[in-house]
Design a protein that fits this description.
With 226 residues, the protein is α/β, with parallel strands linked by helices. The chain has seven helices and eleven strands. Strands 3, 4, 5, 6, 7, 8 and 9 form a seven-stranded mixed β-sheet that branches. It has a two-stranded antiparallel ribbon with strand order 1-2.
Length: 226
């Protein structure tokens, strides 16, 4: 596993973004782990977060893209900090664009999008925190494709939960590729998280012990991708 992935896993735990316990997800599933990118709240955390996203995008998609699109609301700061990091790490200027939950009907920037204007021929990378069921793409992809004749290169999330999507058979990222025609990638997978944290100390304590590992295994027996 690449060093930046190991660092990112510990960064999620240290930032109280990746939690373990008993959680009810938006999908209604009961999960022993939960990731909330909204817990990145300081300048230094956001700077590091953008760098991890930029490295993962560079590794998976290269530099041949023009726009980072972050779905409202959590995707907005993700797109901004990643665009900054991409400029600093790789010397490439990319634009950011986001959607509004409710279209603005006045002013020079009225409409359903904010940030950069999408143009015909733009190559776009979608950026999100985590994809559990893929439902958010149902709202976002039509908005992006309606704005201009763009090519969506792919989707980057921070954590691939590695569980089935809405269809109940394939992963959410596989469903997205099948339905919309672009790949979904992640900085790390949940398998990599477990591999790195199982019986390993982080911040002076073991994060995933035998009991928690068993709960995670049980969860994947029900919701994991086959």
């Amino acid at each position: 596993m690449e060093a930046y992935k190991q660092e990112f896993i510990e960064f999620m735990v240290e930032s109280n973004v990746l939690k373990f316990g008993d959680f009810t997800l938006k999908s209604g599933r009961k999960s022993p782990f939960f990731m909330n990118a909204g817990a990145y709240v300081t300048g230094s955390q956001l700077k590091r977060l953008g760098e991890y996203y930029a490295k993962a995008i560079h590794d998976n998609y290269g530099d041949d893209f023009d726009v980072l699109f972050g779905p409202a609301y959590k995707g907005i700061p993700l797109a901004v900090v990643t665009a900054i990091a991409y400029s600093e790490l790789y010397g490439k200027e990319v634009r950011y664009c986001c959607d509004r939950k409710e279209a603005k009907d006045h002013g020079a920037d009225k409409g359903g999008l904010l940030g950069a204007t999408l143009c015909d021929g733009d190559r776009v990378i979608m950026i999100e925190d985590v994809t559990t069921s893929g439902k958010s793409m149902e709202e976002t992809v039509p908005k992006v494709r309606a704005a201009a004749k763009v090519e969506i290169v792919g989707l980057m999330v921070s954590l691939n939960r590695m569980e089935v999507g809405q269809g109940g058979e394939k992963s959410a990222l596989d469903e997205i590729q099948e339905k919309y025609g672009f790949q979904g990638k992640a900085i790390v997978t949940m398998s990599e998280v477990v591999e790195h944290l199982y019986n390993r100390e982080c911040q002076g304590k073991v994060v995933i012990d035998d009991t928690l590992k068993a709960a995670i295994d049980d969860y994947y027996e029900t919701y994991g991708c086959k």
